[in-house]
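TASK: fixed-backbone design
INPUT:
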């Protein structure tokens, strides 16, 4: 069923896509996103209790399959899973038969044979979670695929902004840095544009792609781009993906696109500073800004658990409802 079949049918199509898997924000509807965010709010209340565990996913099995390094996403998913009472299997790629050349397909089919209910996957290839979702019955959650998407990061970012600012609508959100390699930036653009936020993409022309079909303003001048912004979302310079010289030196990068206190003053006085982590302090953000009262970086980390609990809860509910 295609978008041309009408709005109702399109929403239905998106709901069906959301039912089994969360592979991207691009594939999720505004209604799905709103439902995840409101459910996350309830889970945030649960996480404030003395006993933070609920029996929601008791008897289910989840495998975390991280083919790329992670601190926040991996630990946050694991905590979310444990607090939902699902059994958790942390698959260790470096000590697995992947190093003997076993394919992604065979690895996943082997794990599926154990009867798992959720597969949380991070992979360096864009589209890997989509490929797996088509080949297994388990719910697949994308924990970051190549330079494509990082949907739960965008959801926790939106949750944090709404928590601090009340709404996404009408906010000016500056996304600064290595947009080209950033799956976080792309998922954020897809999400924020559904909620009528004004999006500015700022960075060296070599690292800011055109995002055709999305209402984004592209700027290379950071002082201009930060003017009156409500939210400044800094991106990590992805050293591991810099195959060619996208910028001359890290010192020069900081001079033009790094966020320090002086530059932050261009944004609104109460502007929120965000960063998905891990940060390169002194390259894209100064320590003074990262540790300032305007920084919501650790709130983002905290909110990751509630958002991931909400995603897993909703996917399991849809599965039970058939
Ligand atoms: N934000 C994020 O994806 O961080 P990790 O790579 O540490 O998971």
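OUTPUT:
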């Amino acid at each position: 069923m295609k978008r041309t079949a009408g709005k109702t049918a399109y929403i239905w199509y998106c709901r069906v896509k959301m039912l089994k898997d969360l592979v991207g924000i691009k594939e999720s509807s505004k209604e799905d996103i709103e439902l995840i965010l409101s459910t996350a709010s309830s889970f945030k209340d649960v996480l404030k209790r003395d006993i933070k565990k609920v029996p929601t996913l008791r008897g289910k099995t989840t495998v975390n399959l991280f083919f790329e390094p992670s601190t926040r996403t991996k630990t946050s998913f694991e905590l979310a899973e444990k607090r939902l009472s699902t059994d958790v299997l942390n698959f260790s790629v470096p000590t697995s038969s992947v190093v003997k050349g076993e394919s992604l397909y065979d690895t996943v089919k082997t794990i599926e044979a154990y009867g798992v209910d959720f597969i949380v996957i991070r992979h360096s290839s864009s589209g890997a979670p989509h490929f797996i979702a088509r080949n297994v019955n388990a719910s697949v959650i994308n924990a970051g695929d190549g330079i494509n998407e990082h949907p739960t990061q965008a959801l926790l970012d939106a949750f944090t902004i709404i928590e601090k600012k009340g709404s996404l609508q009408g906010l000016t959100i500056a996304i600064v840095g290595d947009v080209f390699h950033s799956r976080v930036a792309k998922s954020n653009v897809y999400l924020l544009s559904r909620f009528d936020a004004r999006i500015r993409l700022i960075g060296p022309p070599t690292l800011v792609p055109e995002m055709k079909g999305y209402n984004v303003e592209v700027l290379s001048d950071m002082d201009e781009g930060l003017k009156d912004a409500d939210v400044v979302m800094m991106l990590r310079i992805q050293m591991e993906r810099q195959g060619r010289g996208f910028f001359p030196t890290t010192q020069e990068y900081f001079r033009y696109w790094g966020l320090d206190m002086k530059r932050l003053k261009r944004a609104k006085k109460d502007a929120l500073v965000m960063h998905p982590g891990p940060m390169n302090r002194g390259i894209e953000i100064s320590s003074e800004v990262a540790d300032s009262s305007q920084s919501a970086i650790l709130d983002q980390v905290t909110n990751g658990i509630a958002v991931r609990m909400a995603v897993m809860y909703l996917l399991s509910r849809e599965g039970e409802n058939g």
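COMMENT: The chain has twelve helices and nine strands.
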